[in-house]
Amino acid sequence: MKKMKLIFFVICLFFGNDLAAQTDYSWWEQIHNWDGHTSWFKYIIFSPQYLGPNALPVPEVNKGIVGAQGVLELSADGHFSKGDKTQDLFTKLYYPIVGKLIAVEGYVVPIEHFKMDTATRDIRAARVKSGEGTAGGDIYFATIIQLIKDKKFPDVAFRMTCRTASGTNVSAARYTDSPGYFFDLSIGKNYIKDNRYFHTIRPYGMAGFYSWQTNSERNRQDDAFLYGAGIDFISKKITISASAGGYIGYLKNHDKPAVAKISFIRKGDHFNYGLTYQAGLSDYPYNSIRLSLEYIIPESLMIKKPVN
Q1: Distance between CA atoms of residues 303 and 308, nearest Å
Q2: Phi, psi of 152 (to 5 degrees)
Q3: Contact criterion met (CB below 8 Å) for 276 and 263
Q4: Domain count for the chain
Q5: Which residue, 53, 178, 50, 30, is CA-closest to 109?
Q6: How far from the centroid of its chain's Cα atoms is residue 114's Cα?
């Protein structure tokens, strides 16, 4: 019996010390001059400058059109900044539900790995001493509606997107654990060219509204003007896209991110292959590379086949 008590005492001592080591944030309290009662959550700044690359990203520029094909995408991303290196997986489902008129999409970063240097960790008030770890991202749901199509006026589409509060590892300043949404109107028009390399050129533009909840009691949410523009060069097998966009928040805490992007898509019968490079221009301190694989969903699995 005495041996059992001794073993139990040793086990409790071992795990107790381990647990205490895991929850010892004295280093964080000293660095940030903690006042002893304010939650660590209030020390994190909810703006794209002070969070991970997937917390408040610039939305993709919409092109004024509802696609006719369903697509399931899997991508691998690398994000690079002076003090933060992040790798992640990205998944997306795009599914037309009424021909070329209405589509729904959902996307998420299911897992990311990050490594911050000490300076970046402390600027962001992150509570992960090593600066390294993993996190799971927010889930986004969107509906895209075609308002005008195939008229003399450019194509016009409306998109409404909601973000769930599903991101993890907020204490490492990776996500916000708070909801958000954005909606936009986009326009675009195809110009057919008798060109040796590209048969179609499509310029497009987008404007909208972006809002997300903050951790500030004074300003419960940040509202922003959303914008973007781009151009596609389309051939039978290749699409080259160049775009730039961002949003302009009103809290003036580095909440005005802007990015520029160029992508190459190799189209196939069942799969598309993509390579994208994105550069952060302001308030988004990351340059990113994405390798993507898109599976084209067969028409037999669609709710309604595309209409002409």
Answers
A1: 16
A2: -65, -35
A3: yes
A4: 2
A5: 53
A6: 15
pLDDT at position 304: 63
Query: Is the CB of residue 295 less than 8 Å from the CB of residue 268?
Result: no
Burial 133-165 (b: 16+ CB within 10 A, else e): bebbbbbbebebebeeeeeeebbbbbbebebee
**Residue 128, CB half-sphere, CA atoms under 13 Å: how many?**
19
Q: What is the pLDDT of residue 9?
A: 45
Give the tens place of pLDDT for each residue, 214-257: 998 888 999 999 999 999 999 999 999 999 999 999 999 999 99
- pTM score of the predicted model: 0.88
Judge whether residue 7 has pLDDT over 90: no
Indicate whether 258 pLDDT > 90. yes
Look-up of token digits 């990050």: 114
135: tokens are 């996190």
Q: Does residue 114 share a domain with residue 4?
A: no
Domain containing residue 43: 39-299
Same domain, 26 and 48: no
